[in-house]
Amino acid sequence: MPPEVGAIHDEYVNRCVNGCGRGLLNQGREVAGLAKGGRLIPLKLYITAVRHVRELYFVGILQDLSSEARLRDLERDAQCDALTRLPNRKYLRDKIARSMARAARYGNSVALMYIDVDHFKVLNDIHGHDAGDQYLVELGRRLEEIIRQGDAVGRISGDEFLVVLEGLNGCQDMAAIEASQVAEKVRQAAMRPAILRGIEYHGSVS
Known about the structure:
Layout: H1 3-17, E1 29-34, E2 40-52, E3 55-64, H2 66-78, H3 89-106, E4 109-116, H4 120-127, H5 129-146, E5 152-157, E6 160-168, H6 172-191, E7 194-196, E8 199-201
Antiparallel strand pairs: 1-2, 2-3, 4-6, 5-6, 7-8
Helix pairs in contact: 4-5, 5-6
């Protein structure tokens, strides 16, 4: 067990021994362990109390969560864009279906906002693909800051993004106004200067 984790673990065990942490017994908690070669692995620790005659013993059981962690990583990667770590097409298709179902149930509206980076090929040709990738990552980060809780933004290909806005007003005219307000925030976010490989770049989207 890594030293920094070991110190937390020791405190946990001491609380159990002293009685003030008895409520923690038989409740699994995730800890980090050291595998051969010094690699950190996720573990789940269960501590239970066993009384024998007049002595009280504490028994710890460790469960290796490596396979579960890898499965979670694979599931996450299957729904994430490799470059920006934003949701990908697969996730967005599911998100749209869920949003439409909720809109039908509650009588509100859903809007899809297609975003294309202007002059992206020129950016790649002049400053290189690394600069282009850096701008996509930065733009994705800015878009995540703009959207509301419950909305979603993802990268669907190359320089194309999609924003899913749900829970908009049931009146189409009002929903259009709400969506246009988000669109203006997107436009302003994209126009803020970005430092790409030491140069200041002024982008835009449409």
